[in-house]
Each structure stands twice: as C-alpha cells, then as structure tokens.
C-alpha cells in the first residue's frame, strides 16, 4: 500500500499590483499590503491554507524587491522556501521550478498553486474544495478550481466544464476547454451557459505529472529546469540565475492546461472569492459609512459621498466631491474617479517610462 | 501757506482667510501666503504702495497669531508700527486706533486704509487713484475708492455714486449712499445702473476728520481711544489691552461712512483688482496648462482637466477627475469641487467647533 501523498503549496507572489499604486510599490506590492484587518493578503493566504498545508510545506515564489518583506511577514515559513525568481517569466517557469524542487525532495509530492493577493471570505467552505482537489491530484489528475461567475467579467479567463456541472459539487468534472479573457458579448454567453467558471489560478497536481506535462508541452523550459542541481546544492542559486532567464515567458494556462488531456476541475459555489483588482473593487468590499464613504484614517466629508479615502497622519477634508479614490502617501497622492480605478496602472506605466524609480 | 500734508498708510491685516484652508492657518493667514511669485499678498501691498507711501509711514494692524510672521515679512517697516489688536473688533475700532496714534504723531496726517489680502495687477494705474484720493483727503474730504463692477457680486458692499459717474475719472464724485451686500436681483440692478461700484475697503481721510466723525457717530469707541496715553508712552500697550476690547465690534462702513455727510469717491476703471476670495478665484487668476489645470508642485493629470493642484514634496496623480481643488499640506489635505470652494470656510468652522486647534 503506497503511503499517503504529502501536500505542498506554492504561493505565487511575484506580481506588483500596480493598480494599487501609490500604496503598492515594487517592495510593497499588493500581496503584502493590509487592506482588511492587520494581516496582509499573503499572510491571509498562509493562514487560510494552514489546516490543509502546514506552513513548513509552503513555498513562495516572488521577486528580489519583495522577498525581504515576505520573509518578514511569514516567519512561520522556512526562509529558504521563499525564493526570488531571477527574472519575471510568468507562471509556467515559476510553477515548473517549484515542481522541480519539490520532486527532488519528495517524489510523491502533490502541489497546489495559489495566488497570494486574493481575498476569500469563507475559508472553511473554500478548504472543502482544496481538500477535494488535492485528493484528485494525488490520484494523478491535473486539477483546477473554477469560481462560479457573478458577472460577465472580461478581465478573467474562463474554464469550460462538460455540460451539467452543478455548482458546489465535490465531485471533479472534466474540463472541456480553457478560454482566454473574452470580449463582453462572449463573456455574457459564458455566464448565461452555466458551465463556464472563472479561472482564478488555483491548480493542483502531482509534481511528477506537471513535470511530465512540461516536458511534453514546454520542452525548452523543462530541459533548463532539469539541468539544475539539487536544491540543497550550494550551486543551485547561481545555476538558477543562469538558466531561469532562458525559460519561456508564458503562463501555465497557455503553456500546459489548454493543451493537456484529462484535466478536471471543481465547479465551486460561493466561498467569497475576490481578486481585489482595483481600488474600486476594494471599496466595494469594505464597510461604508452613512454617506457611502470608506475612510481609512481621518476624514471630514462635507456634501461628499461614495469616496474611498486612505490617508495616514493627516486630516482629509472633502467639499462637494463624490465617488473618488483618494490615497495619500508621503511621496505620492492619487485622486481618481472610482469608475476609472483600473487606469491607475497606466499612471504607473507612465512613471516607469519617466524612470521615476523612487515612486515605483 | 500750510506745509504739504504727509501721507500715511494703514494696512488692515487681522483677517484669517479661512477659505484658503488648509494653506491658511491662524499664524499663516491668506495675507502672508505667496499665491503668485515669491511675495506674499501683504508684501505685494507694501511694494505697490511704496511710490506713494514710504514703508516707514506704513502701519499694520493684525492679531497676535500673525504679528511675528508679518514682522518677518516686512523688515522695511519699523517693528513698532506692526501692531496686534488685543481683540478682534472689526474695522471701526482698528481704524480709529490707527488714526488716534497717527494724530498724536502728526496732527496734519492724512491716512489711507488698505486691505492686505487683495491682488492688483495694474499697480501704476491704481496709484493714480490713490494719489487723487490722498489729495482730496488732504483737502478735508472723506474719500473712498470704488471698483467698477464686473459681475453682480453678492459678496461685496456697493458704493452708489451720484448719477453720471464716469469710470476712470480722476475727479472725485459725491457718494450718495453705501449699500450693504445685496441679493442677486438687486446686485444685477446695481451693475446695470452704471453708478454703483464695489466697495473694496480703501478709504482716505485726515486723521483729524476721521476722529471727529468717530466722536459724532461712535462716541463710546472715540472716548475709549481718547483715554489712551501717547503711543510712545510705556503704558500704551497695557492701557490698549484694557480699553480695546470695550470698543464696539463694528465696521467703519456701517459705523461712519453710511452716516457721514459729504463723502466723495473715485469711480475707478480697471486696475486689475481682485480680492481672491476663494481657491476658485485664485484658480481663475492663474495661468493654466493645456488641460486647464493649474499645477503648483508636480502633478500627472491622466484624463483630468480644470483642476487646481497645490502640493509640495510629492507627486499628485489624477485619473479621470475634473474641476477639483486639491491642496495638500503635511497635516491636512483638501479636496473640493471648484464650484463649492466657498464652502471651505464651513470646514474651518467645523474644525473650530471640534476644537482641532492644531489644524486651525
């Protein structure tokens, strides 16, 4: 009788979350910010998973700018399991790297892949699906969690299940296709059909299964990763620095999942998932006062409603303004119309173009 | 032949300019702020008058909070000519006090009264009227400068001249009546009539004439002022502290000008007067960029126009916002709709009610 497989978690924390500028910076990205309560999004991710994955089985992939802060925020994780990618190469090489390392430590490893910057308001409900997904993955399947869509979002990819998926079932279902971000009319059809679910980037598989798939669908990256010495080897880090930048810059969805056969998924029901994609999304999540203002810090709202106000150490006075995002930091102040909060990322792009490194 | 009368100026600088909060504070009122160039409004007042009144003939009445800053900003004035009123008692007692002091120094003194917080963009043109007004005052008249109205403003008092006043004439004309701030329909009639001019608080008279008028129309204040020792007397300051708070709290317009006989005035033409009554008024005065934004400091305006942005030491990023006033200071940030900039004063009133002295 084979021994029960051990579950590992890979938390992907290399993103920047530029739409949360000026709070988010290279060294203070969205996942390390405290939006709700006193735990950052990545801390909440670790907390939430702990009943299923003990922290010493968690790995984090991030970048050089963020690693120190993440190490500080996650003292329960072994430091050497928080890795900085030598280059940003999207999710396929990152997941491949983690699978390679885990496989060398535990040939029976089953890994789950988790974003670091989402919110989940019903963690117990969520964990039922995580446990189910790990179980299916331990049986050799590639598994994905689908989020029941609440509106025809054009910013997410979709998972198309075989017809007849019933939300909330703990039985894995066959995935027919992965669909990239759709235009609005198509997104509407997806939501209406009932068997399209949001792809929130949560994947489960045996490391051996994923590495096989990489060899099949992304051989260059697979070969580069296979050339690395064992993780414990003192030359691992320098070899990684040499090899990783040559990996393909591609997502795991595109590189593997869209091509692999026999992928299954869980058509989950509501566990309060939210990827908090903008200041406006955060506003929608938070409790508001009688004038529909969300106030972090101190504000005096005169004939003003619907505003998100985030300032520390100063009074913010509003006079006759509505539906604004106001975020004050020592070196940058953002004032945006809430309905255009997505465009905050454009400001960051402009600052990058202007090489305003101190503001990034 | 009597010797030529000497001209003195009294600059009234006791106001707070609360509508310029959070830049304006008790100790940094509107008149000491630099809105245009590197000279504050009170410094510009002194500069502008200097061809007619040398600085050592200028006197300033202000309050305890502001005196130190004004002394610092006006080193060309003798320090003891910058006085703090022991209590805020509107313009009649303040002007009476200055007249009393000047009269004791120079029995032939002719004084002009000037606000400290207005802008005048054509000073040479302005000084022609100031000289004319001093000349009439030296002949014993009470003289007022009227500003040709540019719109039916309800926030100013009006001077009604005898019919037939022609704007820009250097001949003084009889004043028929002083009119208090009108409602809009009346203001419209005033502007249409052609012989109503704005009262900008610029008055000229021999100190002896003003003191006579005070004795006639405001005997209590006149008696209190007459009880003071000479200005040079060491007990002057303490006696003033005792007497001044008992003076009537009343404007010179209401106490004297509305009642006095034979007041004359100048119906001036445009010398670029502006009392800069709000952030919006300031916005209207300043040069704007291609998106009609006024930027003091550094800002990045993305799909945003018509904003007044005033922040030091940080980048302000705007996304899709229009016609706002944004003023950032270390302890307070104001964001107001430009069309409601007048209501900034209400915020200050609220802060006073809440006893937030550190923000006032």
Give your account of this protein's structure:
- The first copy, chain A, has 2 domains: 7-274, Spore Coat Polysaccharide Biosynthesis Protein SpsA, Chain A, CATH 3.90.550; 279-359, no CATH class.
- Helix content of chain A is 31%, strand content 24%.
- The first copy, chain A, has 11 helices and 15 strands.
- Strand 13 of chain A pairs parallel with strand 15 of chain B, so a sheet runs across the interface.
What features would you highlight for this structure?
four-stranded mixed β-sheet, 2 domains, 360 residues, homodimer, alpha/beta, globular, 31% helix, 11 helices, Spore Coat Polysaccharide Biosynthesis Protein SpsA, Chain A
**Class computed from helices, strands and strand pairing of chain A:** alpha/beta
How much of the sequence lies in strands of chain A comes to 15-25%
Nearest-integer average pLDDT of chain A: 95
Count of discrete domains of chain A: 2
CATH topology assignment of the largest domain in chain A: Spore Coat Polysaccharide Biosynthesis Protein SpsA, Chain A
The pair of chains with the biggest contact is: A-B, 38 and 39 residues
Radius of gyration of chain A: 21 Å
What is the first-to-last residue Cα distance of chain A?
54 Å
CATH architecture call of the largest domain in chain A: Alpha-Beta Complex
